[in-house]
Write a structure and sequence with these properties.
Number of strands: 0
Structural class: mainly alpha
Radius of gyration: 21 Å
Distance between the termini: 34 Å
Strand content: under 5%
Number of helices: 18
Shape: globular
Helix content: over 70%
Length: 406
């Protein structure tokens, strides 16, 4: 019987395993450290103040993405930026429980320190995906299968956190435990292939980004993303407050997120086949429709944790479609020499939307309460679908087909 050796794998198979490990342990770490909102809620943060904190963080995030993108272009290394942001983002995050609570100045400290940490934390996921997508495109790897490892380990880790870590060590343990899990992702990143051509592509994109704004379909997609991101921020950002309104222990947030992550896997795993059968924009609208339906069900029928988990399946399915299609749709609309710029604009629009939606969402939630708030969320998602559908009546420039990284 022949023994199996890693060195016997082809370079593509070995790189797929490394990238799957990075995605898997990155999202496992994010599942551990996903309790900031619960921690703040337990320390007397009302929804409106939580929204203000996240709005400030989004503003910092815009600066952070610009800064780290420029550093990546200058150094010509995405991999180094991933390692640096993961190390600093998780290392500093571990000290959040040391911020004094219950003092007159505590809220001000949270409003200053946590948004400051987003300078390192916000770029983590985009740059991990950047490393993965570009390597998949260059080497012909299956992005959907690789990314599904992140959803799978996120789901498993979320269950473990709810049932083992928090009951035994408390919410504060999630802040430092996140860093321990992230060490594995950082180590694997060190051995990943460095994508080529990033610096040269960035120089080209700075000269003609106006071409993107002359493409009506791309502009309409940015408008769609602005509204769609509002719905996503509303849905996820204020979930602990909905759970509190329903009398559900908010520490079950990890279980809810695990269900969502697990349901991302089917569409992610088969996204390549789906893309051959359906147009990308149809898949994107289907994802948004599933998210809208989840929010509507929350507003009408949810009273218990099992009901909450049952309808969260819809959001997870929609999320899998969104993750598997959004970047490729951007690349489909943008010329080859402007794809990096197009993706940067997409992220910036999402962050700007986050500022408005966090400010508005916190005030609105406190004003109308949990269930009515989620009916508004359903309406926001539905509005984004209508905006997106209108773009198909606009004749835009044809662009080069996107690389099939899926």
């Amino acid at each position: 019987m022949k023994k199996f050796h890693l060195r016997a794998l082809s370079p593509q198979a070995a790189e797929s395993l490394r990238l799957a490990g990075v995605q898997g342990f990155f999202w496992a770490a994010m599942a551990v450290g996903n309790y900031q909102s619960v921690y703040l809620q337990n320390n007397g943060f009302p929804a409106a103040r939580f929204g203000l904190l996240n709005a400030i963080a989004c503003a910092v995030s815009i600066l952070a993405m610009t800064f780290w993108g420029a550093v990546s272009d200058k150094t010509g290394s995405v991999r180094k930026i991933v390692i640096l942001t993961l190390t600093l983002g998780c290392g500093l995050y571990a000290f959040v429980p040391l911020i004094p609570t219950g003092q007159p100045y505590s809220s001000l400290l949270f409003l200053i320190i946590i948004p400051a940490l987003s300078f390192f934390r916000t770029p983590m996921a985009p740059f991990v995906d950047n490393l993965t997508v570009r390597n998949c495109a260059e080497q012909g790897l299956n992005y959907g299968v690789i990314r599904s490892s992140g959803s799978f380990l996120f789901a498993i880790t979320g269950v473990l956190v709810v049932n083992l870590l928090i009951p035994n060590l408390g919410i504060t343990s999630t802040f430092w435990a996140m860093g321990l899990v992230m060490l594995v992702a950082i180590t694997l990143t060190w051995f990943c292939h460095e994508p080529q051509g990033g610096g040269q592509r960035a120089k080209k994109t700075r000269s003609g980004s106006g071409e993107l704004f002359r493409n009506p379909k791309f502009v309409t997609f940015l408008v769609f993303c602005f509204v769609f991101q509002m719905g996503m921020t509303f849905e996820s950002g204020f979930m602990p407050y909905l759970m509190a309104d329903l009398g559900i222990d908010s520490t079950n947030l990890g279980l809810l997120l695990s269900v969502k992550a697990l349901m991302e896997i089917p569409f992610l795993f088969f996204i390549a086949k789906l893309r051959r059968r359906f147009k990308l924009h149809h898949l994107i609208m289907m994802g948004a429709a599933l998210m809208a339906l989840e929010a509507l069900m929350f507003s009408l029928f949810v009273h218990t944790l099992p009901q909450l988990l049952m309808f969260a399946v819809l959001y997870g399915l929609g999320g899998g479609l969104w993750i598997g299609t959004s970047t490729n749709y951007i690349y489909e609309l943008a010329p080859v020499h402007l794809r990096a710029t197009a993706h940067g604009l997409f992220i910036s629009v999402s962050q700007i939307s986050g500022i408005l939606s966090n400010l508005l969402g916190g005030v609105l939630f406190d004003l109308i309460g949990g269930k009515p708030f989620y009916s508004v969320v359903a309406g926001v998602f539905a509005t984004s679908i209508v905006i997106f559908a209108l773009s198909f009546s606009i004749k835009g420039k044809k662009s080069t087909p996107a690389p099939n990284a899926n």
